[in-house]
Design goal:
homodimer, alpha/beta, Aspartate Aminotransferase, domain 2, Aspartate Aminotransferase, domain 1, 7-stranded mixed β-sheet, 4-stranded antiparallel β-sheet, globular
Chain lengths: 364, 364
């Protein structure tokens, strides 16, 4: 909701109108591997990655999903049904996005199982490693670790690039991995649309992912695809006129808002008796041409006192966070979402300021 | 696509326009059990069932899904995670919708397993029976069978009412089961929207279904919900003015088209040397006030010669069908979709007519 004011301000420009007889079929493009992908959305996605420079789309199949969650599951299905013994271990470096664990485990599938922290994974045999960079919850830049740590070469990699956009981080290179996930929720803020996409090198993987989405939901909302195509097109137009009509560059707008929030947050935390925030590295951003800092979508807060439960501490301040424990980390950590509405962010800062000198943590 | 001309003709009237800053949040109604259900869609669904008289909505929770496929999976999850030993058997009377088998089996979940035809199910212990009425593929009206056949009272029932709408069948009563599934794909023809809904009596089931959809896709497209609400509202307006502006009653339009198709189909089949079509019963429809016949969305064709594979026979005529085998029935049956575009239907009839006196079936 952080980006809502940008879209509200020029809402008319991004209007879409859908007639009663439009978009009625299950099919979008019977000749495409992903037969339910609207061709206009496919074209918009390719253009967007070209404009931002964050991922290659040449020689890649695009598979659209009901958010990137569905695509993550589609990849698990593709990797594990194309052969080999099961269940396949799924890991990610802690602290990891807690939904990975939930999604892998909730149906008790015999195809795959959650094995937690990639830093602690020592089994032989097939595995799937999810690399989320910048990482939810802690904002760090990530690389795959299992192969380097253990020499186990039987891994399949999923790159979750939900936050690899210029408002969150320096675009330091054009990612060209085999399986990359993106979502419009974090890219433009349109979380309600439930549109994610995968860039996939191998045709058989793209086919199996399409099969997964066919069985689980018989495709993806055409209305959302239609609208996402429009939003992405206008974002591209705005980005290619950098400087001319400043308010129209969405990524600059996003970075400005996040930058202000991080400044307020750091000012609030620097005098805190109880909490720490780590620093992020700077990087040369190929998109903006500037040296920029990571501006994580989340505050990854750490209690100075290792024995304290950070999320409990926040709860005492009426701040809703997520415990580090469910992200595979220590309870001295907690995650707070910074992509909320302005008034919610200000309330968060206000409540956080109440920690100074009040000793609230001792109450827990 | 059969209904497309109706919607194209008055496309403007059913227009929806969505601004760039609309529908951005994951949330629709934080106070509702199904927190991602757009309140307007919920209200439209309740109104629609009231107007048509096909299901009670009082004392029912509405859970929205990415098509009714997702809701079927959500119900399986709800039934099997609320306690009891697993895997739970899932059955449906043959011939059954083949996707039930696919959905239950594709992830090899330890929570449930597909056990096929409800008429052959004799195990003790927990089971889930899906009742699809009118039934895909054969258009018959159905009731649950396991309890009556075996006395096993440990069953949970899912009523899939995708086709319980006035264009397909007489609305003979207000269904008031605990777990009922509907989808806009079949109700109005807007399959591309991927909108289904469940009417659920038990709050804990509705909560667990919401949990399933939260984990698997973090909700359901807001754009599709917004548009579905509009489409349903205008369908209700049209239905409540029966007779005044005749072209505007969608269900009458749908019945007229399907009725013409069935007449052509029966005329073509009655002289066939090779194929049979069974008759459907008539019923008094509480919606139209008339005695009406079932007009199934599918032709369930049967080879006169029991040893012949009906789908192979159709393939010889370049007709794309689905074999009875994958619906748990004999290979002498095959299903052909009648809800296609006009030109495709006419082509189907033309190709089917070629069977008369040509002995094509002997070629197989």
């Amino acid at each position: 909701m952080m980006f809502e004011p940008f879209w509200k301000k020029m809402s008319d420009k991004y209007n879409v109108t859908i007639g009663g007889g439009d978009l009625m079929s299950y099919f979008s493009d019977g000749n495409n591997v992903c037969w339910f992908l609207e061709p206009k959305l496919g074209a918009a996605i390719r253009r967007l990655h070209g404009v931002v420079g964050n991922a290659v789309t040449d020689d890649r199949y695009i598979v659209v999903g009901t958010g990137s969650s569905q695509l993550f599951q589609a990849l698990l299905y593709a990797f594990t049904t194309l052969g080999g013994p099961e269940p396949v271990s799924v890991v990610s470096s802690a602290p990891y996005y807690s939904a990975y664990a939930e999604v892998v485990g909730f149906l008790r599938s015999e195809l795959y199982k959650w094995e937690g922290d990639a830093y602690k994974f020592n089994k032989k045999g097939a595995y799937i490693e999810v690399v989320n960079s910048p990482n939810n919850p802690d904002g760090t830049l990530r690389e795959a670790v299992v192969m380097n740590r253990t020499g186990n070469g039987n891994g399949k990699l999923i790159y979750d690039f939900a936050y690899y956009w210029p408002q969150f981080t320096a675009i330091t290179g054009v990612a060209d991995y085999d399986n990359m996930l993106f979502t419009i929720s974090k890219c433009t803020g349109h979380a309600g649309s439930r549109i994610g996409w995968a860039l996939v090198k191998d045709k058989d993987i793209a086919k199996k992912m399409t099969e997964y989405i066919t069985i689980s939901s018989i495709g993806v909302s055409k209305e959302s695809q239609f609208r996402a195509a429009k939003i992405i097109e206008v974002v591209c137009n705005g980005s290619q006129n950098v400087g001319s009509v400043k308010s129209e560059n969405f990524f600059e707008y996003g970075r400005k808002i996040l930058s202000e929030r991080w400044q307020k947050l750091r000012e609030t935390i620097q005098n805190s008796e109880y909490l720490i925030l780590s620093k992020y590295p700077q990087g040369h951003c190929l998109f903006s041409g500037k040296l920029v800092e990571t501006l994580s979508a989340y505050a990854w807060l750490e209690s100075k006192d290792d024995t304290k439960d950070c999320n409990e501490f926040l709860r005492g301040l009426k701040i809703i966070g997520k415990s580090g424990k469910i992200c595979g980390a220590h309870q001295k950590f907690a995650r707070v979402n910074l992509m909320c509405r302005e008034e919610e962010f200000n309330q968060f800062i206000e409540r956080l300021s109440a920690t100074r000198g009040k000793g609230v943590i001792n109450g827990h």
